[in-house]
Amino acid sequence: FTSACNMLGLAIQDLDEGKSQIAHGETVRETANMISFCADVIGIRDDMYLGYGNQYMREVGSALDFGMENGVLAQRPGMVNLQCDIDHPTQSMADLAWLTEHFGSLENLKGKKIAMTWAYSPSYGKPLSVPQGIIGLMTRFGMDVTLAHPEGYDLIPEVVETAGRQAVESGGSFTQVSTMAEAFKDADIVYPKSWAPYHVMGRRTDLLKAGDHAGLKSLEQECLTQNALHKDWHCTEEMMKHTRNGEALYMHCLPADITGVSCKEGEVTEGVFNKYLIDTYKEAGWKPYIIASMILNRRFASPDVVLENLMKKGARRVDA
Predict the structure, then answer these.
(1) What is the rounded CA–CA span in Å between residue 222 and residue 233?
(2) What is the pLDDT of residue 10?
(3) Could you tell me which of 218, 251, 279, 310 has the fewest CB atoms within 10 Å of its CB?
(4) Residue 103 has what DSSP assignment?
(5) Domain 89-284 fold
(6) What would the pLDDT profile of 100-124 be if each residue is shown by its tens digit?
(7) Angstrom distance (rounded) from CA 238 to CA 181
(8) CATH number of the domain located at residue range(s) 2-85 in this protein
(9) Strand pairing of 144-148 and 249-250?
(10) Which residues pair with 221 in a beta bridge?
(11) Half-sphere exposure of 48 (CA within 13 A, CB side)
């Protein structure tokens, strides 16, 4: 977010609860308006509490509308969702931009199969927002989206329902299967990524809000034990052979849990990860540009004209 703002010439103010009056009882409405007097855009990341992060962002948005309607704010700042409990739009759109670059156009993505699968990790509590963001966005572009996870590792039901509806509307498809191998079969793109079960994130939220550290520790051990039952959900060279011609594009939001490198056993083997190392770097490289684009599109009705004028102003003068 900071890099994106730097590219646009914006100054950054980094705020958390310790730097605001929230701890002293200030409401969301007050906080939103106070920080907006001199702000053009607000970026919020709130993915810790299932059922609260996205809701909080919407409350901030409503507070900004309130301030604007009542003449408190000279302008209504834009707001960027940097990750919440439901979605990770800056990541999924960076992924979409990379796929568009890799396959040549958005049109070329139609009919391509992308496998969004759970993968084993030696940690727990990873947000649901990345897989939900992928199935929620890619089903809008006519892709054949397959979701796979072990029993019990469900995503938020409403998100899954939305993905199915969008697939029908876009002419693509949305399928759920129960094994990684089935998801990888004839896939053009694979996205093996660990996440915590939906019901676990709900329990974790309650424990976090209650400050129950002992309960959190117990839940962690329970989940790690459950994760360990599914170590075969592992993106290996053998698993990749199930994909289309054995050469599907591997994707990850990074950092990946790489077996033998960042952990003893993880989401992907070192061999597979290194084969697609440059691809994952290019995928990640889109993120600041996506955020900058969000900010620019929110601020100007015709951002293409703004950019064109800026490029003209920056043209080097040539002597006659």
Answers:
(1) 18
(2) 94
(3) 310
(4) H
(5) Rossmann fold (3.40.50)
(6) 999 999 999 999 999 999 999 999 8
(7) 10
(8) 3.40.50.1370
(9) unpaired
(10) none
(11) 7
Q: How far apart are CA 271 and CA 79, in angstroms?
A: 40
User: What is d(CA 146, CA 300) in angstroms, rounded to the nearest whole number?
Assistant: 36
Which one-letter DSSP state was computed for residue 101? H
d(CA 319, CA 99): 42
Angle, vertex CA 268, rays to CA 244 and CA 221, nearest 5: 135
Residues 120 and 227 sit within 8 Å (Cβ to Cβ):
yes
Q: Which two tokens stand for residue 302?
A: 């015709």
Q: pLDDT band at 136, cuts 50/70/90?
A: very high
Q: Where in the chain is the domain with CATH 3.40.50.1370?
A: 2-85, 89-284
Structure tokens at 165: 């509806």
**Which parts of 8-84 fold into alpha helices (H)?**
28-34, 53-69
Give per-residue pLDDT as tens, 23-47.
Answer: 566 788 888 998 898 899 999 999 9
Tokens of 5: 């703002």
Say which residue the tokens 């199935």 belong to.
Answer: 135
Tens-digit pLDDT profile for residues 205-237: 999 999 999 999 999 999 999 999 999 999 999
Among 108, 183, 113, which residue's Cα sits nearest to residue 150?
183
- Neighbour count for residue 116 (Cβ, 10 Å): 26
Report yes or no: 146 and 172 within 8 Å, Cβ to Cβ: no
Please state, in angstroms and rounded to a whole number, the distance separating the CA atoms of residues 162 and 86. 12
CA distance 131 to 155: 8
Comparing CA positions, the residue from 19, 96, 113 lying closest to residue 283 is 96
Phi, psi of 226 (to 5 degrees): -65, -45
Cβ atoms of 184 and 241 within 8 Å: the answer is no
**Number of C-beta neighbours around residue 306 at 10 A:** 13
Mean pLDDT in the chain?
94
